[in-house]
Amino acid sequence: MAEVEAVSAALSTVVFFSRLDEATVLLLSKCVKYEQFKSHEKVFSYGAYGDKYYLLLTGRVAVQVPVKQPGAKSSSNDSSSENSDNSEEISSDDGDDTASGNENGKVHMLQIATLEAGAGFGEMALLEDQPRSATIVALENSEALSLDRENYQLHAMEKHREVFRRK
């Protein structure tokens, strides 16, 4: 029971779950699964359909999005730089990313954020059956708790709707 209470306390600190009542968070805590990711292992890929939310317990992960290839025609007239000071372009040739790559199959990904222990990601997968909006890659050996859509919908979705209706 102490483990469930520790998980419940961790979930309660995440903004996404912070407005749920204690009993609902405790129910969700009983449904999470423990997962480990090795350094450089993908947690999930841009464009893939997912049904899990993750709470990072240890380690760090990179949030990556696909970028246009140099020389690709732009549909906008925006001349601002695509790279910010804390972003890094990464080339992926493992074929997992759904984003269209260049002619040799490589997809260029831009790292837009680094998440550390205590951060949650993938909440949209609990709410909608939509493709992932980013690729998440472990930067080092990492541990996370995952909650799937089925358990979220069973125990918390309606309560979340009530909370947001009262706003």
UniProtKB/TrEMBL annotation:
<protein>
    <submittedName>
        <fullName>Cyclic nucleotide-binding domain containing protein, putative</fullName>
    </submittedName>
</protein>
<feature type="compositionally biased region" description="Low complexity">
    <location>
        <begin position="74"/>
        <end position="84"/>
    </location>
</feature>
<feature type="domain" description="Cyclic nucleotide-binding">
    <location>
        <begin position="16"/>
        <end position="153"/>
    </location>
</feature>
<dbReference type="InterPro" id="IPR014710">
    <property type="entry name" value="RmlC-like_jellyroll"/>
</dbReference>
<dbReference type="InterPro" id="IPR018490">
    <property type="entry name" value="cNMP-bd_dom_sf"/>
</dbReference>
<feature type="compositionally biased region" description="Acidic residues">
    <location>
        <begin position="85"/>
        <end position="97"/>
    </location>
</feature>
<dbReference type="InterPro" id="IPR018488">
    <property type="entry name" value="cNMP-bd_CS"/>
</dbReference>
<dbReference type="InterPro" id="IPR000595">
    <property type="entry name" value="cNMP-bd_dom"/>
</dbReference>
<feature type="region of interest" description="Disordered">
    <location>
        <begin position="68"/>
        <end position="104"/>
    </location>
</feature>
<dbReference type="Pfam" id="PF00027">
    <property type="entry name" value="cNMP_binding"/>
</dbReference>
